[in-house]
Design goal:
single chain; alpha+beta; four-stranded antiparallel sheet; five-stranded antiparallel sheet
Length: 167
């Protein structure tokens, strides 16, 4: 990138940044202080650019007058960005754990890692059962129903059956 292009990018980001007492927009995030519908307090919603739903909604501190919210500031915004990012990472890890399983089996040919990756497609849900040797080389791959239960015994049975599609 040229120095002029770098300056243009910084200027565009600065122009897009909003730093108001109840609304901060910067670094791909929007923090908006909102009235808490459940009580008399305030909440803050953190929304990542391009998303329709907030990644995080949490309580927000009352100001000194005990009626209005405390204004957002740079340190609060940065903390909220960090927290919202952590929430999204935990959700992604949980989703990965829900749709990806792995077991290791000791077979006569050596250790084999068997994975099950569920594809939660609305019209064609399925799973992919795959086997890799200790060097990461794929030994087999078959499509199975999404409700296939992967365990050491089901993986061993699949290996013993010559990697034929389980019934």
């Amino acid at each position: 990138m040229t120095p002029d292009a770098d300056n243009d990018a910084v200027e565009a980001e600065t122009a897009a940044a909003v730093n108001e007492p109840r609304l901060w927009i910067n670094n791909g995030w929007t923090a908006r202080v909102i009235k808490n519908e459940d009580d008399d307090g305030w909440a803050v919603a953190m929304i990542r650019d391009g998303e329709s739903e907030p990644a995080l909604i949490g309580p927000w501190t009352m100001g000194r007058d005990k009626k209005n919210p405390k204004p957002l500031d740079v340190s609060a915004f940065n903390t909220l960005v960090k927290t919202a990012g952590e929430v999204l990472r935990r959700h992604e890890q949980q989703r990965h754990a829900l749709y990806h399983r792995s077991v290791t089996v000791d077979a006569p040919s050596g250790r084999i890692t068997v994975t099950l990756d569920i594809v939660p497609d609305e019209y064609d849900p399925h799973a992919v059962l795959a086997a890799q040797d200790t060097f990461g080389e794929q030994l087999a791959q078959v499509r199975v129903p999404p409700e296939f239960k992967l365990s050491v015994s089901s993986a061993s049975a699949w290996i013993d059956n010559g990697f034929r599609k389980p019934t």
